[in-house]
Design a protein that fits this description.
188 residues; seven-stranded mixed sheet; 6 helices; globular
Length: 188
C-alpha cells in the first residue's frame, strides 16, 4: 500500500479534513481537474457551498462533471474567471480555501499561474477567511514560472503578522527536481 501522506496534495487534504466537517463556505481557487473541489464537497456538510475558479473553461467543465459523477453538483458554484476575482463573486467569510498552483495536469505547460495574480488572490482570500479559517497552497517550483511563484508566495506568507495568522510549510527534503511545497495558513 502506497503511503499517500507523501503526496503533497494528500498532505494538504490531511490538514484540512478535520475542519471540513464543520465548514460551509469553501473555495477551490484553481479548479484544474476537479480533485480538490471534489475533496471539499465530499468531506463537508450537505449544506456547504464549494466555489471553484479557473480561467480555463475545460477545467470548469471537468470539475462540474467530477461533482456530478459523485452526486455532489448541488454544492458546486463554478466561476470561469481568474482567482484574483474571488471577492467579486463571494461575499461570505470562507472557512477553507485551497490553491493548487502551476499548470493544468495533462494540459498545456505554457498556461500557468503567475506570481503576481496568485499573490493578489491569496491576499484577497486571507482577508475573506473567517477566524479559524484555513488556507492551503501547493506551489510547484519545478518549472521557471513556478519557481518564481513559490519563492514569492513563501516570502509573502513569511511576512504575515503572527498576531493575525499562523503559517507553515512542508516539503519533501530528499527529492530531486524541486518537489512541490505545501503552505498552510490559519487565520487567528
Amino acid at each position: 500500500m502506497k503511503n499517500k501522506f507523501f503526496r503533497i496534495v494528500d498532505t494538504a487534504h490531511y490538514f484540512l479534513a478535520e475542519k471540513l466537517s464543520q465548514s460551509h463556505n469553501l473555495l477551490d481557487a484553481t479548479a484544474g481537474n476537479g480533485h480538490d473541489t471534489l475533496f471539499l464537497a465530499q468531506n463537508s456538510p450537505v449544506d456547504a457551498v464549494v466555489w471553484f475558479f479557473d480561467i480555463q473553461q475545460q477545467s470548469i467543465d471537468k470539475t462540474i462533471n467530477v461533482l456530478a459523477e459523485a452526486d455532489l453538483a448541488f454544492k458546486g458554484r463554478p466561476v470561469n474567471a481568474c482567482h484574483t476575482k474571488v471577492a467579486e463573486y463571494i461575499d461570505e467569510p470562507l472557512d477553507i480555501a485551497m490553491f493548487n498552483l502551476g499548470y493544468l495536469p495533462g494540459g498545456s505547460h505554457i498556461l500557468t499561474t503567475k506570481a503576481t495574480t496568485s499573490l493578489t488572490a491569496i491576499q484577497a482570500v486571507l482577508e475573506m477567511l473567517a477566524p479559524g479559517g484555513l488556507l492551503s497552497i501547493v506551489a510547484y517550483p519545478g518549472h521557471s514560472e513556478g519557481y518564481i511563484e513559490q519563492q514569492q508566495v513563501c516570502e509573502y506568507l513569511r511576512g504575515l503578522p503572527s498576531t493575525k495568522f499562523t503559517s507553515a510549510s512542508w516539503k519533501l527534503i530528499n527529492q530531486e527536481n524541486k518537489p512541490p511545497v505545501l503552505y498552510i495558513v490559519e487565520k487567528k
